[in-house]
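explain this.
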Amino acid sequence: MYSLRKSTLAALGTAGLASLLGGCSFEPALRVPHSPSDQVPYTAGPSPKQTATAPGPAGHAQTLEYGQDLDREWWTLFHSKALDTLIAVGLKNSPTVAQAQAQLEEARAVARENASIFFPQVSGSLSAERAKSSSAAFGGNKGGFRYSLVTGSLNVSYYPDIFGVNRLVYRNSEALVRYQQWELEAARLTLTGNIVTAAVNVAATQAQIEATRAIIAQEQKLLQLTENQYRAGAITYLSVVNQRSQLAAEMATLPPLEQQLAVYRHQLAVLVGQFPAEAKVPDFRLSDLHLPEKIPVSLSSELLKQRPDIQAAMAQMQAANAVIGEARAQFYPTVKLTAALGDTASNPNLFFNPISSIWSLVGSLSQPIFQGGKLRAQEAQARAAYEVVYQQYRSTILGAFEQVANALRALEHDAETLKAQQEALESARSALHLVESSYRAGATDYLSLLTAEVQYDNAKIAVIKAQSQRYQDTAALLVALGGGWWTQKNDMPAPVAEPSSAAQAPASTS
Protein backbone atom coordinates (compact mmCIF):
# COMPACT_ATOMS: atom_id res chain seq x y z
CA MET A 1 0.00 0.00 0.00
CA TYR A 2 2.85 2.36 0.84
CA SER A 3 4.62 1.71 -2.47
CA LEU A 4 1.38 2.35 -4.38
CA ARG A 5 0.86 5.65 -2.57
CA LYS A 6 4.47 6.65 -3.19
CA SER A 7 4.27 5.87 -6.91
CA THR A 8 0.98 7.71 -7.22
CA LEU A 9 2.39 10.80 -5.50
CA ALA A 10 5.42 10.75 -7.77
CA ALA A 11 3.24 10.57 -10.86
CA LEU A 12 1.00 13.35 -9.59
CA GLY A 13 4.06 15.45 -8.83
CA THR A 14 5.37 14.97 -12.34
CA ALA A 15 1.97 15.87 -13.81
CA GLY A 16 1.86 18.96 -11.58
CA LEU A 17 5.28 20.03 -12.80
CA ALA A 18 4.09 19.55 -16.38
CA SER A 19 1.04 21.71 -15.70
CA LEU A 20 3.18 24.41 -14.05
CA LEU A 21 5.67 24.61 -16.90
CA GLY A 22 3.21 23.94 -19.71
CA GLY A 23 2.99 27.64 -20.50
CA CYS A 24 6.72 27.90 -21.21
CA SER A 25 8.06 27.96 -24.75
CA PHE A 26 11.47 28.28 -26.33
CA GLU A 27 10.09 29.49 -29.65
CA PRO A 28 11.50 32.96 -30.40
CA ALA A 29 9.31 35.83 -31.55
CA LEU A 30 8.69 35.74 -35.29
CA ARG A 31 10.92 38.23 -37.10
CA VAL A 32 9.14 39.86 -40.04
CA PRO A 33 10.89 42.22 -42.49
CA HIS A 34 9.76 45.76 -43.20
CA SER A 35 7.09 46.34 -45.86
CA PRO A 36 5.98 49.64 -47.42
CA SER A 37 2.85 51.44 -46.22
CA ASP A 38 -0.22 52.16 -48.31
CA GLN A 39 0.97 55.73 -48.83
CA VAL A 40 4.01 54.50 -50.76
CA PRO A 41 3.20 53.91 -54.45
CA TYR A 42 4.17 50.70 -56.19
CA THR A 43 6.15 52.50 -58.87
CA ALA A 44 9.06 54.89 -58.75
CA GLY A 45 7.29 58.20 -59.11
CA PRO A 46 3.52 58.70 -59.28
CA SER A 47 1.59 55.54 -60.12
CA PRO A 48 -0.49 55.73 -63.32
CA LYS A 49 -4.23 56.26 -62.89
CA GLN A 50 -5.47 56.15 -66.47
CA THR A 51 -3.85 55.08 -69.71
CA ALA A 52 -3.92 56.77 -73.08
CA THR A 53 -6.45 55.94 -75.80
CA ALA A 54 -5.81 54.75 -79.33
CA PRO A 55 -8.05 54.13 -82.33
CA GLY A 56 -9.13 50.62 -83.22
CA PRO A 57 -9.64 47.45 -81.17
CA ALA A 58 -8.05 47.30 -77.71
CA GLY A 59 -7.40 51.01 -77.88
CA HIS A 60 -9.69 52.37 -75.17
CA ALA A 61 -8.30 53.83 -71.96
CA GLN A 62 -7.87 51.72 -68.83
CA THR A 63 -8.65 53.18 -65.40
CA LEU A 64 -6.68 51.88 -62.41
CA GLU A 65 -8.86 51.85 -59.29
CA TYR A 66 -6.53 51.76 -56.29
CA GLY A 67 -7.87 50.24 -53.08
CA GLN A 68 -10.47 48.07 -54.87
CA ASP A 69 -10.69 44.27 -54.69
CA LEU A 70 -10.34 41.90 -57.59
CA ASP A 71 -12.92 39.35 -58.55
CA ARG A 72 -11.83 35.82 -57.73
CA GLU A 73 -12.30 34.73 -61.33
CA TRP A 74 -10.17 37.57 -62.61
CA TRP A 75 -10.07 36.20 -66.15
CA THR A 76 -13.79 36.91 -66.57
CA LEU A 77 -12.83 40.57 -66.97
CA PHE A 78 -11.87 39.65 -70.55
CA HIS A 79 -15.51 38.62 -71.26
CA SER A 80 -14.64 35.51 -73.28
CA LYS A 81 -16.83 32.44 -72.77
CA ALA A 82 -14.33 30.28 -74.62
CA LEU A 83 -11.59 31.42 -72.24
CA ASP A 84 -13.79 30.84 -69.18
CA THR A 85 -14.58 27.31 -70.34
CA LEU A 86 -10.95 26.48 -71.07
CA ILE A 87 -9.81 27.68 -67.64
CA ALA A 88 -12.55 25.66 -65.94
CA VAL A 89 -11.28 22.55 -67.75
CA GLY A 90 -7.69 23.40 -66.81
CA LEU A 91 -8.45 23.82 -63.11
CA LYS A 92 -10.20 20.46 -63.14
CA ASN A 93 -7.67 18.45 -65.14
CA SER A 94 -4.29 20.12 -64.60
CA PRO A 95 -1.70 17.72 -63.15
CA THR A 96 0.13 20.60 -61.43
CA VAL A 97 -3.00 21.56 -59.51
CA ALA A 98 -3.70 17.91 -58.70
CA GLN A 99 -0.12 17.50 -57.48
CA ALA A 100 -0.45 20.54 -55.20
CA GLN A 101 -3.73 19.15 -53.85
CA ALA A 102 -2.09 15.80 -53.09
CA GLN A 103 0.80 17.54 -51.33
CA LEU A 104 -1.72 19.41 -49.20
CA GLU A 105 -3.43 16.16 -48.20
CA GLU A 106 -0.05 14.67 -47.34
CA ALA A 107 0.80 17.66 -45.12
CA ARG A 108 -2.57 17.37 -43.37
CA ALA A 109 -1.96 13.69 -42.67
CA VAL A 110 1.46 14.49 -41.19
CA ALA A 111 -0.12 17.17 -38.98
CA ARG A 112 -2.73 14.71 -37.71
CA GLU A 113 0.03 12.21 -37.00
CA ASN A 114 2.01 14.79 -35.00
CA ALA A 115 -1.13 15.85 -33.13
CA SER A 116 -1.44 12.36 -31.64
CA ILE A 117 1.46 13.10 -29.26
CA PHE A 118 -0.83 15.35 -27.22
CA PHE A 119 -2.92 12.39 -26.13
CA PRO A 120 -2.17 9.22 -24.16
CA GLN A 121 -1.13 6.27 -26.28
CA VAL A 122 -3.13 3.19 -25.30
CA SER A 123 -2.35 -0.35 -26.43
CA GLY A 124 -3.43 -3.81 -25.37
CA SER A 125 -1.40 -7.01 -25.20
CA LEU A 126 -2.22 -10.69 -24.63
CA SER A 127 0.28 -13.53 -24.35
CA ALA A 128 0.14 -17.23 -23.46
CA GLU A 129 3.21 -19.17 -22.37
CA ARG A 130 3.95 -22.87 -21.71
CA ALA A 131 7.41 -23.53 -20.19
CA LYS A 132 9.55 -25.93 -18.24
CA SER A 133 11.78 -24.62 -15.49
CA SER A 134 14.86 -26.41 -14.11
CA SER A 135 14.96 -27.13 -10.38
CA ALA A 136 18.79 -27.07 -10.42
CA ALA A 137 18.70 -23.27 -10.22
CA PHE A 138 17.11 -23.68 -6.79
CA GLY A 139 19.42 -26.47 -5.55
CA GLY A 140 17.06 -29.30 -6.38
CA ASN A 141 17.90 -32.54 -8.14
CA LYS A 142 14.57 -33.30 -9.74
CA GLY A 143 13.65 -32.89 -13.38
CA GLY A 144 12.11 -29.48 -12.92
CA PHE A 145 8.52 -28.45 -13.29
CA ARG A 146 6.22 -27.31 -16.05
CA TYR A 147 3.81 -24.41 -15.93
CA SER A 148 1.47 -22.30 -18.06
CA LEU A 149 1.11 -18.52 -17.87
CA VAL A 150 -1.54 -16.32 -19.49
CA THR A 151 -0.96 -12.53 -19.33
CA GLY A 152 -3.16 -9.71 -20.60
CA SER A 153 -2.63 -6.01 -20.01
CA LEU A 154 -3.72 -2.53 -21.03
CA ASN A 155 -0.71 -0.21 -21.48
CA VAL A 156 -0.80 3.58 -21.43
CA SER A 157 2.05 5.97 -22.17
CA TYR A 158 2.04 9.76 -22.17
CA TYR A 159 4.62 12.50 -22.75
CA PRO A 160 3.73 15.63 -20.74
CA ASP A 161 4.51 18.70 -22.83
CA ILE A 162 6.50 20.40 -20.08
CA PHE A 163 8.66 22.59 -22.28
CA GLY A 164 6.27 22.79 -25.22
CA VAL A 165 8.27 20.50 -27.51
CA ASN A 166 5.19 18.60 -28.63
CA ARG A 167 3.37 21.82 -29.34
CA LEU A 168 6.33 23.14 -31.34
CA VAL A 169 6.49 19.97 -33.41
CA TYR A 170 2.79 20.34 -34.13
CA ARG A 171 3.08 24.04 -34.92
CA ASN A 172 5.78 23.20 -37.42
CA SER A 173 3.54 20.70 -39.19
CA GLU A 174 0.57 23.07 -38.98
CA ALA A 175 2.64 25.80 -40.66
CA LEU A 176 3.62 23.34 -43.38
CA VAL A 177 -0.09 22.63 -43.94
CA ARG A 178 -0.67 26.35 -44.46
CA TYR A 179 2.32 26.43 -46.78
CA GLN A 180 0.81 23.68 -48.93
CA GLN A 181 -2.56 25.45 -48.91
CA TRP A 182 -0.96 28.56 -50.34
CA GLU A 183 1.09 26.50 -52.78
CA LEU A 184 -2.17 25.04 -54.07
CA GLU A 185 -3.64 28.52 -54.49
CA ALA A 186 -0.43 29.65 -56.20
CA ALA A 187 -0.62 26.68 -58.57
CA ARG A 188 -4.17 27.66 -59.52
CA LEU A 189 -3.21 31.29 -60.02
CA THR A 190 -0.15 30.40 -62.11
CA LEU A 191 -2.20 28.01 -64.22
CA THR A 192 -4.93 30.55 -64.98
CA GLY A 193 -2.32 33.19 -65.81
CA ASN A 194 -0.51 30.82 -68.18
CA ILE A 195 -3.76 29.84 -69.90
CA VAL A 196 -4.75 33.47 -70.46
CA THR A 197 -1.28 34.35 -71.74
CA ALA A 198 -1.24 31.35 -74.09
CA ALA A 199 -4.74 32.20 -75.34
CA VAL A 200 -3.64 35.77 -76.10
CA ASN A 201 -0.58 34.39 -77.89
CA VAL A 202 -2.83 32.16 -79.99
CA ALA A 203 -5.06 35.10 -80.88
CA ALA A 204 -2.12 37.40 -81.64
CA THR A 205 -0.31 34.82 -83.75
CA GLN A 206 -3.50 34.04 -85.64
CA ALA A 207 -3.93 37.76 -86.32
CA GLN A 208 -0.34 38.01 -87.56
CA ILE A 209 -0.91 35.04 -89.87
CA GLU A 210 -4.03 36.63 -91.31
CA ALA A 211 -2.24 39.96 -91.74
CA THR A 212 0.73 38.22 -93.37
CA ARG A 213 -1.55 36.39 -95.80
CA ALA A 214 -3.25 39.67 -96.67
CA ILE A 215 0.17 41.25 -97.22
CA ILE A 216 1.20 38.32 -99.43
CA ALA A 217 -1.97 38.74 -101.50
CA GLN A 218 -1.18 42.44 -101.87
CA GLU A 219 2.40 41.64 -102.85
CA GLN A 220 1.16 39.19 -105.49
CA LYS A 221 -1.04 41.90 -107.00
CA LEU A 222 1.88 44.30 -107.03
CA LEU A 223 4.02 41.65 -108.68
CA GLN A 224 1.43 41.21 -111.40
CA LEU A 225 1.28 44.99 -111.86
CA THR A 226 5.07 45.20 -112.01
CA GLU A 227 5.24 42.43 -114.62
CA ASN A 228 2.59 44.20 -116.73
CA GLN A 229 4.56 47.45 -116.57
CA TYR A 230 7.72 45.59 -117.54
CA ARG A 231 5.98 44.08 -120.57
CA ALA A 232 4.80 47.55 -121.50
CA GLY A 233 8.40 48.76 -121.33
CA ALA A 234 7.70 51.21 -118.52
CA ILE A 235 10.20 49.70 -116.06
CA THR A 236 13.25 47.49 -116.09
CA TYR A 237 13.34 43.80 -115.31
CA LEU A 238 15.21 44.60 -112.10
CA SER A 239 11.98 45.97 -110.62
CA VAL A 240 10.28 42.65 -111.36
CA VAL A 241 13.09 40.73 -109.66
CA ASN A 242 12.94 43.01 -106.62
CA GLN A 243 9.19 42.54 -106.29
CA ARG A 244 9.52 38.78 -106.55
CA SER A 245 12.18 38.89 -103.85
CA GLN A 246 9.90 40.99 -101.66
CA LEU A 247 7.05 38.50 -102.16
CA ALA A 248 9.31 35.53 -101.37
CA ALA A 249 10.62 37.23 -98.23
CA GLU A 250 7.08 37.89 -97.03
CA MET A 251 6.00 34.30 -97.77
CA ALA A 252 9.01 33.05 -95.77
CA THR A 253 7.61 34.68 -92.64
CA LEU A 254 4.43 32.61 -92.78
CA PRO A 255 5.73 29.10 -91.85
CA PRO A 256 7.42 30.29 -88.61
CA LEU A 257 4.18 31.99 -87.58
CA GLU A 258 2.20 28.83 -88.28
CA GLN A 259 4.75 26.84 -86.28
CA GLN A 260 4.44 29.28 -83.39
CA LEU A 261 0.66 29.00 -83.52
CA ALA A 262 0.93 25.20 -83.32
CA VAL A 263 3.27 25.53 -80.31
CA TYR A 264 0.82 27.82 -78.48
CA ARG A 265 -2.09 25.47 -79.22
CA HIS A 266 -0.12 22.50 -77.92
CA GLN A 267 0.83 24.50 -74.84
CA LEU A 268 -2.83 25.26 -74.14
CA ALA A 269 -3.69 21.58 -74.51
CA VAL A 270 -1.06 20.56 -71.96
CA LEU A 271 -2.06 23.35 -69.56
CA VAL A 272 -5.59 21.96 -69.40
CA GLY A 273 -4.28 18.43 -68.85
CA GLN A 274 -4.93 17.01 -72.31
CA PHE A 275 -2.86 15.57 -75.12
CA PRO A 276 -2.30 17.95 -78.05
CA ALA A 277 -3.92 15.55 -80.52
CA GLU A 278 -7.04 15.13 -78.36
CA ALA A 279 -7.56 18.64 -76.99
CA LYS A 280 -10.18 20.94 -78.44
CA VAL A 281 -8.47 24.32 -78.24
CA PRO A 282 -10.78 27.22 -79.19
CA ASP A 283 -9.84 29.42 -82.13
CA PHE A 284 -9.14 32.59 -80.14
CA ARG A 285 -9.28 35.99 -81.82
CA LEU A 286 -8.14 39.30 -80.45
CA SER A 287 -11.53 40.74 -81.39
CA ASP A 288 -13.21 38.15 -79.12
CA LEU A 289 -11.27 39.35 -76.07
CA HIS A 290 -12.44 42.45 -74.22
CA LEU A 291 -9.68 44.59 -72.74
CA PRO A 292 -10.71 45.41 -69.14
CA GLU A 293 -11.46 49.12 -68.84
CA LYS A 294 -11.49 49.29 -65.02
CA ILE A 295 -8.77 47.42 -63.15
CA PRO A 296 -8.92 47.19 -59.33
CA VAL A 297 -5.48 47.56 -57.74
CA SER A 298 -5.00 46.42 -54.13
CA LEU A 299 -3.14 48.60 -51.65
CA SER A 300 0.38 47.68 -50.60
CA SER A 301 -0.66 46.31 -47.21
CA GLU A 302 -3.31 44.09 -48.79
CA LEU A 303 -0.90 42.68 -51.35
CA LEU A 304 1.01 40.91 -48.56
CA LYS A 305 -2.18 39.09 -47.57
CA GLN A 306 -3.40 38.36 -51.09
CA ARG A 307 -0.34 37.01 -52.86
CA PRO A 308 -0.25 33.20 -52.37
CA ASP A 309 3.52 33.06 -52.74
CA ILE A 310 3.99 35.65 -49.97
CA GLN A 311 1.66 33.76 -47.67
CA ALA A 312 3.46 30.51 -48.49
CA ALA A 313 6.81 32.12 -47.64
CA MET A 314 5.35 33.37 -44.34
CA ALA A 315 4.20 29.84 -43.48
CA GLN A 316 7.73 28.58 -44.13
CA MET A 317 9.07 31.20 -41.72
CA GLN A 318 6.61 30.09 -39.04
CA ALA A 319 7.63 26.46 -39.53
CA ALA A 320 11.33 27.32 -39.31
CA ASN A 321 10.69 29.43 -36.21
CA ALA A 322 9.05 26.46 -34.48
CA VAL A 323 12.09 24.31 -35.33
CA ILE A 324 14.32 26.79 -33.44
CA GLY A 325 12.12 26.30 -30.38
CA GLU A 326 12.38 22.53 -30.77
CA ALA A 327 16.18 22.75 -30.91
CA ARG A 328 16.33 24.94 -27.78
CA ALA A 329 14.00 22.61 -25.86
CA GLN A 330 16.33 19.65 -26.49
CA PHE A 331 18.63 21.03 -23.75
CA TYR A 332 15.96 20.31 -21.10
CA PRO A 333 14.54 17.12 -19.58
CA THR A 334 12.05 14.83 -21.26
CA VAL A 335 9.38 13.26 -19.07
CA LYS A 336 7.48 10.08 -19.84
CA LEU A 337 4.60 8.56 -17.87
CA THR A 338 3.64 4.91 -18.39
CA ALA A 339 1.00 2.75 -16.76
CA ALA A 340 -0.14 -0.84 -17.18
CA LEU A 341 -3.13 -2.72 -15.80
CA GLY A 342 -3.89 -6.38 -16.41
CA ASP A 343 -4.01 -9.97 -15.21
CA THR A 344 -1.63 -12.89 -15.24
CA ALA A 345 -2.45 -16.45 -14.19
CA SER A 346 -1.29 -20.02 -14.68
CA ASN A 347 -4.86 -21.15 -15.30
CA PRO A 348 -7.19 -19.32 -17.71
CA ASN A 349 -10.02 -19.86 -15.22
CA LEU A 350 -8.20 -17.58 -12.78
CA PHE A 351 -7.52 -14.89 -15.38
CA PHE A 352 -10.19 -12.47 -14.12
CA ASN A 353 -9.76 -13.35 -10.46
CA PRO A 354 -8.62 -10.38 -8.31
CA ILE A 355 -5.66 -12.37 -7.11
CA SER A 356 -4.33 -12.47 -10.67
CA SER A 357 -4.39 -8.69 -11.25
CA ILE A 358 -1.17 -6.79 -11.99
CA TRP A 359 -0.44 -3.10 -12.46
CA SER A 360 2.43 -0.67 -12.77
CA LEU A 361 2.85 3.11 -12.81
CA VAL A 362 6.21 4.53 -13.92
CA GLY A 363 7.47 8.07 -14.35
CA SER A 364 10.81 8.58 -16.08
CA LEU A 365 12.95 11.62 -16.79
CA SER A 366 15.91 11.91 -19.15
CA GLN A 367 18.29 14.86 -19.24
CA PRO A 368 21.07 15.40 -21.79
CA ILE A 369 24.39 15.83 -20.01
CA PHE A 370 27.09 15.62 -22.66
CA GLN A 371 26.40 15.40 -26.37
CA GLY A 372 29.71 16.61 -27.79
CA GLY A 373 28.25 19.91 -28.99
CA LYS A 374 25.45 18.19 -30.92
CA LEU A 375 22.57 20.15 -29.38
CA ARG A 376 24.20 23.53 -29.89
CA ALA A 377 24.99 22.62 -33.47
CA GLN A 378 21.35 21.67 -34.01
CA GLU A 379 20.19 25.01 -32.64
CA ALA A 380 22.69 26.86 -34.86
CA GLN A 381 21.47 24.88 -37.83
CA ALA A 382 17.84 25.75 -37.04
CA ARG A 383 18.68 29.45 -36.75
CA ALA A 384 20.59 29.39 -40.03
CA ALA A 385 17.67 27.61 -41.71
CA TYR A 386 15.35 30.32 -40.41
CA GLU A 387 17.63 33.00 -41.86
CA VAL A 388 17.41 31.25 -45.22
CA VAL A 389 13.61 31.32 -45.32
CA TYR A 390 13.62 34.85 -43.86
CA GLN A 391 15.66 36.10 -46.79
CA GLN A 392 13.48 34.07 -49.16
CA TYR A 393 10.46 35.86 -47.71
CA ARG A 394 12.14 39.23 -48.29
CA SER A 395 12.94 38.25 -51.87
CA THR A 396 9.37 37.11 -52.44
CA ILE A 397 7.96 40.43 -51.21
CA LEU A 398 10.41 42.47 -53.27
CA GLY A 399 9.67 40.35 -56.33
CA ALA A 400 5.92 40.76 -55.86
CA PHE A 401 6.16 44.55 -55.61
CA GLU A 402 8.48 44.60 -58.60
CA GLN A 403 5.99 42.60 -60.68
CA VAL A 404 3.11 44.92 -59.76
CA ALA A 405 5.20 48.03 -60.44
CA ASN A 406 6.40 46.69 -63.79
CA ALA A 407 2.86 45.72 -64.81
CA LEU A 408 1.47 49.14 -63.88
CA ARG A 409 4.10 50.90 -65.95
CA ALA A 410 3.60 48.39 -68.75
CA LEU A 411 -0.11 49.25 -69.01
CA GLU A 412 0.79 52.91 -69.22
CA HIS A 413 3.46 52.42 -71.85
CA ASP A 414 1.53 49.78 -73.81
CA ALA A 415 -1.29 52.25 -74.39
CA GLU A 416 1.17 54.88 -75.58
CA THR A 417 2.89 52.34 -77.82
CA LEU A 418 -0.39 51.22 -79.39
CA LYS A 419 -1.41 54.82 -79.99
CA ALA A 420 1.88 55.54 -81.75
CA GLN A 421 1.71 52.31 -83.77
CA GLN A 422 -1.85 53.03 -84.88
CA GLU A 423 -0.78 56.48 -86.06
CA ALA A 424 2.18 54.93 -87.86
CA LEU A 425 -0.13 52.39 -89.51
CA GLU A 426 -2.53 55.06 -90.72
CA SER A 427 0.34 57.07 -92.11
CA ALA A 428 1.85 54.01 -93.79
CA ARG A 429 -1.54 53.04 -95.26
CA SER A 430 -2.11 56.53 -96.69
CA ALA A 431 1.43 56.69 -98.04
CA LEU A 432 1.08 53.28 -99.71
CA HIS A 433 -2.20 54.24 -101.41
CA LEU A 434 -0.67 57.45 -102.72
CA VAL A 435 2.49 55.72 -103.96
CA GLU A 436 0.46 52.91 -105.59
CA SER A 437 -1.69 55.43 -107.49
CA SER A 438 1.38 57.36 -108.54
CA TYR A 439 3.16 54.14 -109.54
CA ARG A 440 0.23 53.03 -111.69
CA ALA A 441 0.32 56.39 -113.41
CA GLY A 442 4.05 56.03 -114.00
CA ALA A 443 4.90 59.07 -111.92
CA THR A 444 6.78 57.20 -109.18
CA ASP A 445 9.64 54.73 -109.42
CA TYR A 446 9.49 51.22 -108.06
CA LEU A 447 11.90 51.90 -105.20
CA SER A 448 9.42 54.33 -103.64
CA LEU A 449 6.68 51.73 -103.95
CA LEU A 450 8.84 49.04 -102.36
CA THR A 451 9.71 51.32 -99.45
CA ALA A 452 6.06 52.13 -98.87
CA GLU A 453 5.17 48.42 -98.92
CA VAL A 454 7.78 47.51 -96.32
CA GLN A 455 6.71 50.35 -94.03
CA TYR A 456 3.07 49.35 -94.25
CA ASP A 457 3.80 45.65 -93.62
CA ASN A 458 5.91 46.42 -90.58
CA ALA A 459 3.34 48.86 -89.20
CA LYS A 460 0.50 46.37 -89.55
CA ILE A 461 2.33 43.63 -87.67
CA ALA A 462 3.51 46.13 -85.04
CA VAL A 463 -0.09 47.15 -84.30
CA ILE A 464 -1.10 43.53 -83.75
CA LYS A 465 1.83 42.99 -81.38
CA ALA A 466 0.99 46.18 -79.49
CA GLN A 467 -2.64 45.08 -79.11
CA SER A 468 -1.71 41.64 -77.80
CA GLN A 469 0.84 43.17 -75.42
CA ARG A 470 -1.92 45.19 -73.74
CA TYR A 471 -3.88 41.99 -73.09
CA GLN A 472 -0.82 40.15 -71.80
CA ASP A 473 0.32 42.92 -69.46
CA THR A 474 -3.22 43.38 -68.14
CA ALA A 475 -3.32 39.68 -67.28
CA ALA A 476 0.15 39.97 -65.74
CA LEU A 477 -1.04 42.79 -63.45
CA LEU A 478 -4.13 40.87 -62.34
CA VAL A 479 -2.00 37.81 -61.55
CA ALA A 480 0.63 39.93 -59.78
CA LEU A 481 -2.10 41.34 -57.52
CA GLY A 482 -3.04 37.84 -56.37
CA GLY A 483 -5.96 36.93 -58.59
CA GLY A 484 -8.85 37.79 -56.25
CA TRP A 485 -9.26 34.44 -54.42
CA TRP A 486 -10.06 36.25 -51.14
CA THR A 487 -13.51 37.38 -52.28
CA GLN A 488 -14.65 33.79 -51.74
CA LYS A 489 -12.73 32.69 -48.65
CA ASN A 490 -14.87 29.59 -48.21
CA ASP A 491 -13.05 28.07 -51.16
CA MET A 492 -9.74 28.16 -49.30
CA PRO A 493 -8.90 24.95 -47.40
CA ALA A 494 -9.43 25.39 -43.66
CA PRO A 495 -6.21 25.12 -41.64
CA VAL A 496 -5.78 22.16 -39.32
CA ALA A 497 -7.08 23.13 -35.86
CA GLU A 498 -4.60 22.83 -33.01
CA PRO A 499 -5.83 20.42 -30.29
CA SER A 500 -7.14 22.30 -27.28
CA SER A 501 -6.28 19.78 -24.55
CA ALA A 502 -2.53 19.96 -24.08
CA ALA A 503 -1.50 22.15 -26.95
CA GLN A 504 -2.49 25.65 -25.90
CA ALA A 505 -0.12 28.38 -27.02
CA PRO A 506 2.18 29.66 -24.30
CA ALA A 507 1.41 32.87 -22.52
CA SER A 508 5.06 33.73 -21.99
CA THR A 509 8.53 32.67 -22.94
CA SER A 510 10.52 30.82 -20.32
Notes: Strands lie at 63-66, 121-133, 145-158, 294-297, 334-345, 357-366. The CA atoms of residues 404 and 480 lie 6 Å apart.
